[in-house]
Amino acid sequence: MNTDDSKMDAMKKAQKYSFRVHYSKEDGGYIALSPEFPGLSAFGETPEEAIRESETALELFHEAYSEKKKPLPVPKVLKG
Q1: Which burial class, exposed, middle or buried, applies to 78 when counting CB atoms under 10 A from its CB (0-12, 13-18, 19+)?
Q2: Does pLDDT of 2 surpass 60?
Q3: Residue 52 in domain
Q4: CA-to-CA distance for 18 and 10, rounded, in angstroms?
Q5: How far apart (Å, rounded) are the C-alpha atoms in residues 44 and 28?
Q6: What is the pLDDT of residue 1?
Q7: Do residues 14 and 63 touch, judged by C-beta distance below 8 A?
Q8: Structural contact between residues 42 and 24, judged by C-beta atoms closer than 8 angstroms
């Protein structure tokens, strides 16, 4: 599998995971968190930017899980 295929695979996986985005007065921007991946957070000046940044962070989490041969968490469905 080439690098582009790996990135596409990671992006497809990212779409399965949930993210909660909230505004942080303290940070002056939006924070995206994924309940399936404790410690994964991403910052953005807009909610959309926070989500884009979280997708990048999620790719890194996937790589770390893969290197450690750790199974990926089951995606959760969040309710409003």
Answers
A1: exposed
A2: no
A3: yes
A4: 14
A5: 9
A6: 45
A7: no
A8: no
- 3-state SS class at 8: helix
For residue 75, tell me if it sits in a domain: no
CA dist 42 and 57 (Å) reads 7
Q: How long a stretch of residues is the chain?
A: 80
Number of domains composing the chain: 1
Sign for the pseudo-dihedral over CA of 63, 37, 39, 15: positive
Which residue, chain included where needed, has tokens 């995971």? 17
**How does pLDDT run across 8-52, given as a tens digit for each residue?**
555 555 568 889 999 999 999 999 999 999 999 999 999 999 999
